[in-house]
Amino acid sequence: AKPLMNATRIQVFSSYASIAHAIADHHIASGTRAVVYDNERSTGTPENEVADPVRYCRLTGQLLHKNHLEYIASPGFDLSGPRPANGQWFQQFVRAGLLNCGRYADYLDLQDQLMQGTSIYAADAQAAATLLHHINPRAKLLMGLSASPSGRLATAGQLWQAYQDTSRFVNGYWLNVPHNVSGHSRPVVALQFLQNLVTHTR
Fold it and tell me: Positive or negative CA dihedral for 47, 51, 54, 56?
């Protein structure tokens, strides 16, 4: 298959140690411009990195920038503790100081896709944009979108609504196509959303 036009090659890692080893061993693929540090409990980030996440965000940013790579910070909400009953996981994430990962990043991916399509999702995007601008005016904010957040089925219409609710606050999106509760991925939902996006933003 031909690569997508105007696409940027990135690589995703769940630990700082893996990034450091990949750079040292020259295992960053040719043409890679950015690296995602996806530090969260659910992705198997080492316990020492989980215990001091902002420190490892800083080390990641320093290492990547030294090697002329952009840094996409993607700290998981689960680093702040279990999801609260009121659904305000982003607020807990902020209180834990985890938005400070954006201080060292070129992009901050806010993994708020569990709340996509709700008023909480839009409020979180607006608040995150304001806070990130104060922390690091150069960093760009990405919001997580998912075809199956935590295994639940989503529709292209729900993704489109989430986009409409937040696009004025953010710089882009991280679109996930994970497996749903039946064990199947649903790329058609993501494709329908992207087709809608192209149609309405030309």
Answer: negative
Q: 95 by DSSP, 3-state: which?
A: helix
**Interval 4-21: pLDDT, tens:** 667 889 999 999 999 999
Provide DSSP, 123-191: HHHHHHHHHHHHH-TT-EEEEEEESSGGG----HHHHHHHHHHHTTT-SEEEEE--B-TTS-B-HHHHH
Q: Kindly report the number of other CB atoms within 10 A of residue 72's CB atom.
A: 24
* Tokens of residue 169, six digits: 């606050």
111 token code pair = 């993994």
pLDDT, tens digit, for every residue of 48-57?
Answer: 999 999 999 9
